[in-house]
Design brief:
The longest helix is centred in the middle third of the chain and has 23 residues. This protein is mainly alpha-helical. The chain is elongated. 63% of the residues lie in helices and 0% in strands.
Length: 71
């Protein structure tokens, strides 16, 4: 005799992920872009504060672009 199947349990049990794979990839790429931009800005002998602001701005601006490009 076979066990009755539970229609509500279709996959492995457990909580849903905190972030979707798409969101994780977009945010990771934005962090890499921000780090590269901030590092390059810092290497041009600009102050550390300006390099941090450039990196944050680069990461922030890249998120909508990456969201639309990565599907």
């Amino acid at each position: 005799m076979t066990e009755p199947q539970n229609p509500q349990q279709s996959g492995p049990s457990g909580p849903e992920p905190f972030l979707s794979l798409h969101t994780a990839v977009v945010l990771l790429a934005a962090v890499v872009i921000g780090l590269v931009l901030g590092g390059l800005t810092w290497l041009t002998q600009v102050s550390a504060a300006a390099a941090v602001l450039a990196g944050l701005a680069g990461a922030g601006v890249s998120i909508p672009v990456l969201h639309s490009l990565i599907r």
